[in-house]
Amino acid sequence: MTASPIMVLSLRRLVAISIAVVISLHYLLVVVFKKDIDVVSTVTDFGGRIGLTKPASKEPTNILFSPPPQFKQSTSEVALPNTGSERANATFVFLCRNSDLAGVVSSIQQMEDRFNRKHGYPWVLLNEEPFTEEFKTRVEVLTNSPVHFGVIPPEHWYQPDWIDEEQAKAGRLRMTDQGIIYGGSVPYRNMCRFNSGFFFHHELLKPYKYYWRVEPEVKYFCDLDYDPFKFMEENKKVYGFTIALLEWEPTITTLWKHVKEFSKKYPEYINPKGSMEFLSDDQGESYNLCHYWSNFEIADMDFWRSDAYQAFFEHLESTGGFYYERWGDAPVHSIAASLLARKDQIHFFEDIGYRHEWIQHCPNTESWWKGKCACDPSDSFDDHYNSCLSRYKRMFS
Ligand SMILES: Nc1nc2c(ncn2[C@@H]2O[C@H](COP(=O)(O)OP(=O)(O)OP(=O)(O)O)[C@@H](O)[C@H]2O)c(=O)[nH]1
Ligand SMILES: *[C@@H]1O[C@H](CO)[C@@H](O)[C@H](O)[C@H]1NC(C)=O
Ligand SMILES: [Mg+2]
Fold first, then answer.
1. pTM check: above 0.90
2. Which domain holds residue 197?
3. Which residues are catalytically annotated?
């Protein structure tokens, strides 16, 4: 079949239009890409990254072979006037194993996307054994911020020799029989003790005051349009949380007894403006099991480094309870923050949407819209009967 004159005409027109479109697209792309490249080079100038060279930010000779997209991740947003000097004295802290890699990558990427890409806070990853090269590379590609990988000194990690292993083993067997999660695990106890008493002494964390604790496989649901570290700094906060809940009693059977001993021994460390009401429903006689869930924490390491907390930790440590029972760092941190800090120094980060299996906090209404939160505001632990949030809120009403 031959083409009719009309079809030939429209074919010519089509070719002409196509050429015009291609030419204008080319110019458009040149302008757009050039803008990106300029921004990237500005970003490199105030250098968030230490020790890693950024891909060339020079004008590429051929625009079509400009840097691949992953190197342009931080363009317009980083160009906002948030330079190094505007950062708080703070870092992320991530305790993890090489085997946690997939969950680590997922958590860090979310944190970068939701918050840190605009700020450039450093990351500190800690492990009781060295991270593998693969691990480091997979993490480093996720951020333009400095990433520090550290090994934990053995004395900060392993069960001390003075612990009576027979007694510790009996405790583990008992908890295994009771069906308590990680009840039989020694590494889990090492982890809880390290988080309670040692992480903030690590060489890589010494230069910082505030930290945000991150765990593998967690979710950050919302964009953050402010800097929680600056918030902590400006408001002199000591401890920030998103989820508060009840502890499993069999894991901390004698903990409260030792806390009461500590209070008697060191009354000078107990803060008169503290929040015993959060911990106890009978003025301190018994523990109501309420604690802040420590897999999310934004807190002040100088508080953990203080004489008061050091005395508190030393007192608990001397009882061996981290190994004879299974004391979590969450109740330990929470009890200390409640007794040694003023209650107004403990902050509920209501606008940070967060999930650690199987519990989540999803902000409601206004902050949900503002933060573009990828969670269901009606699916939030806040009002659950095992939540301690109402107890926290009651202290301020
Ligand atoms: N390096 C290292 N990190 C650990 C070890 N055990 C736990 N962690 C880390 O410590 C944090 C808490 O451990 P998790 O296993 O998440 O404990 P959890 O949050 O109470 O329980 P699940 O998340 O429900 O398993 C996480 O960041 C882990 O990656 C360990 O033996 N070595
Ligand atoms: C950050 O905080 C730590 C701990 O308080 C302190 O030693 C360090 O000097 C601070 N750094 C800056 C730059 O203020
Ligand atoms: Mg966890």
1. no
2. 75-394
3. 297
